[in-house]
Specification:
The chain is built from 2 helices and 13 strands, in the order E-E-E-E-E-E-E-E-H-E-E-E-E-E-H. The protein has about 300 residues and is mostly beta strands. It has a 6-stranded antiparallel β-sheet with strand order 7-9-5-4-3-13, with no helix packed on it. A 3-stranded antiparallel β-sheet has the order 8-6-10. Strands 1-2 form a two-stranded antiparallel ribbon. Strand 4 and strand 5 form a beta hairpin.
Length: about 300
Amino acid sequence: DKNNNIAIAFEDFMDDQNFTDVVFSLKANPEITNVPPVDEDLNTTIEKTGVYAFEDEWPKAGDYDMNDIVLITEASLHVKNNFVTKTVLKCRLAAIGATRRIAAAVQLDRVAPNTINRIEYSTRTNFTENLFQTNTNGTEQGQSLAVVPLFDNAHAFAGFNGTPIVGTYRDTPFDAKEFTVTIYLEEQSVEEAKLTLDNWNFFITCNAQQGKRMEIHLINGKATDLFDTSLVGGVVFSPGTPFRAKGNFCWAMQIPGEFRFPLENNNIRQSFENFDSWITKPEYDWYNHFIPEKVK
């Protein structure tokens, strides 16, 4: 700085990357003169992990065991000069507690489809149902925002015939299906601020066909252009908030870190201590207070 001090800055997490969480100012005697310049063309990588858990009986309440799809994610943004060059999404399909054919995708809520250059998958059996009609760059057709398909039949993708419930019984083994999706962006087309990892909009759809469909998003999630609004009903709070249930409950959750999801037919409200407190106290870490005999 102007007083010839040297600053050492620390970042405590990988979200904002502003390096202002702790800053030390140092001054040496004798003065240090060989400080290397800052690389203005620096590449950075920002990472975030989380678990997405879904209940598939929207718009009804269902058994509310929140294990119909359990998807463990580790996402990273590769950034150069404040623009995202690519994103890498590593996933583990940890449970399929459903007998419906379930597909999954992620909508990038501030990204236009034409800013995606291409999408690459580490696995070859993601798509067996011809559900997602895609553009040449891999994004779904008929969408004003970039929708990246993940798989179109969870059971087939995990190697099962039919639609058996797998991974949600205590003594039944299930090898989680691992896969990676890499999204390459057009050069200098998407600023980092438009693709923050907290705003990735994961969703599932059940027994869908091409065209309009049911969708299940996080409680405040934005539906895609193919969402069929005529299906809203059941215990949905209002048409304007199709993924918020009466009582402020939901059909999809994002959990930070590890998640001991409920065993089959164990309502999540009775599988974690004081779960309902989360409704009025969002900071309550209910997922760390599980009842051992009720979770996987």
